[in-house]
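Hi again,

Forgot to attach this to my earlier email, sorry! This is the prediction with adenosine monophosphate bound. I've pasted everything inline since the attachment limit keeps bouncing my files.
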Amino acid sequence: MHHGPLIAILVAGLCLAFVFGALAQKLRISPLVGYLLAGVAVGPFTPGFVADQGLANELAEIGVILLMFGVGLHFSLKDLLSVRAIALPGALAQISVATLLGLGLGLALGWNWVAGLVFGLALSVASTVVLLRALQERRLVQTEKGKIAVGWLIVEDLAMVLALVLIPAVADALNGARPGAAIPLAGRFELGLWGVLGLTLAKVVAFVAFMLIVGRRVIPWILHWVAHTGSRELFRLAVLALALGVAFMAASLFGVSFALGAFFAGMILNESPLSQRAAEESLPLRDAFAVLFFVSVGMLFDPGILLRAPLPLLATLAIILIGKSLAAWLIVRAFGRSNTVALTISASLAQIGEFSFILAGLGVSLSILPEQGRDLILAGAILSILLNPVLFVLVDRFSGDFGSAPGPEPQTEPEIDIAPTKLDGHMVIVGYGRVGSLVGAGLAAQGETLLVIEEQAEAVAAARADGADLIIGNAADPAVLEAAGLARAKRLFIAIPESFEAGQVCEQARRDNPDLPIVARAHSDAEVAHLTRCGATATIMGEAEIARAMLALCRPDADAAAA
Ligand code: AMP
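Structure tokens for the complex follow:
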């Protein structure tokens, strides 16, 4: 059999990530841990198959692009501007604190101050992928704290873009302008440090302006045009091409990072709800590549560092986990936000990732950072990513317990809320979208008590407005369904479109209450059979009902009534 390194890393990476991820899930830890371990398994520091690190990193980069594109899709310019008052000073202050702490550690380890600064900078910037996965897993992206965290991240990304351009210039100045030592930006010798800084900022501004003026018109136009061709495949391809193309253009023409470019491409699509919806459909690729990101990080981990430099590693971890968190917490609190918001933001940012690797690599290649610095950064990254889910558990435990501000926390945003219901004789509706909300309105008109299980912000808000009791979360999660008091319920309506999840809900509901009438929603005969097997009392196939209603219009009495 002939296969190249790309196929090897794709297959080994994804398969092992799946196996370890599933194991982690079974052990009730975050699947991220499994993905990282899969990376360690295919990495150079463990025996057996070793995947190509360079390829892994490139695939991971695609993951970052698609992820940021997805965030952009849900993030409007308005959102970005609405959090600037806190995100901008917050991120800058946190970067300064983390950099100073890193500098301190570097000096203590006997490095010079430039090495310390590069080390500190690398510790100051959080990983996009880790932060977004953490927020998505907890459905926080659209909440106020989620928006602050994402805005904060954008500022950090921008700062790193500047750092990446400036570091070679500094290295040159330091090393007496060794010719050919550094990489980018022609003519930087004439420009000097401030010139380089100004030029980079000007490029970022030019890119944003270009996207807002040209991109905003051209991108939706392209999508509308492709939609008219009637080819769905072409449409999805157009979306993918736009995401990757804009990211690439941002990087090569404007010197902006891939991630930032993709974010703006997504944000432009966000302007038109139609293209946003369409673009979302074509994002399953994103998840696969995000998994590869974690695999590629795992591959970098050399367990030997735990023995070689345990104390410096502990100090590095303390800076990432405690120093950065504390700084972020203080800043957010100083801006008058509640304890929960401050803790969530601290936890989101208490890790390091892709930018840190890039900075570390650059530092070592310019010989301004000792190799030990890079090893500490890599080990610090993987350990902080591993520990990140633990921090969130701690946040859940401690938020609100101490020093919580009485100030108003916006109530419109869903988080997971699975307090067990006290209702009795209630109607339970799973999913409050197009189907569930109509069922709810009908039942409410009959004077029934409603309990809705929903996971999406807008639908939650609609259910709340209709006066229903709510459980927020994924109904296929046993803990969520358990809270619905099904043993005392009158009837269960499963009004979600995904039949595997609906089947799960059905089976568990049947276990909780063998006599409960369960009505489920299906789209095909196979789904009807599946749901019936899972215990549904009645299954309504949407398409059949649509046909029935269409036919009903053709009856002579219907024509007469219409006339
Ligand atoms: P529609 O297809 O318009 O009826 O919308 C379906 C609704 O069900 C959406 O609002 C989804 O957020 C919601 N939904 C889908 N799956 C689940 C689930 N597993 N748990 C809770 N809500 C869900």
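The mean pLDDT is 84. The domain at 427-562 is CATH 3.40.50.720 (Rossmann fold).

That should be everything now.

G.
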